Amino acid sequence: MSEQNVFVIGDVHGCLNTLEELLQHWHPETERLVQVGDLVDRGRYSPECVALAISLEVRYPGQTTFLKGNHEAAMLQHFGPAGSQQGWLRWGGRSTVEQYQACPALLEPHLAWLACRPLIWQNEQLLISHAGFADTPHQLDEDHPDGLLWRRGPLLNMGRRQVIGHTPTDGDPTFDPATNVLNIDTGACFGFALTGVRLSATGELLEEIIIPTHRIDIAAAE
């Protein structure tokens, strides 16, 4: 089990400037960075957010984990052999397609990187995923609505702290003591905030950092 503190970031959704401000609170020399997925869609800077994540992975080898979210999974389906994923286009993908059209050389390497994102990061006391583990046989099925990329609704108490995103709040993290689930998707792409939490290796919440969304990240281009 890693003895490092863990700095966990919620759903970014293309909010590059907000993410950059939040990252100023991460201590890479002593903390692992875990992001819960949904780097892309809805905000104005999806390619830039993926590029930043890749650069951090290169700069700090072994110190970062960027998980897969349902938006990455749908993006990969859209650009995969099955072709257009109309659902994804309706709930954020259309803007991402347009952004990659402005920098087409990035699309293929970014898709390859996104396809390799893990579904979970864990140690003996922490279990971090995009949408969380529920009482269902489909937990690890990336396409199933009860899987840990898509689940909305009650989650299981897994005997350790779960940290999730996926279901946006109105700007503040939520905690369910019955299931020991901390939700840190604080609605960055809806104009609320991007949240990072600093946790000990044993799952103790040490600090919450809540960065209000930079308007440039979500405002319509001039």
From TrEMBL:
Q: Name one Pfam family in it.
A: Metallophos
Q: What is this protein called?
A: Serine/threonine protein phosphatase
Q: Where is the Serine/threonine specific protein phosphatases domain?
A: 67-72
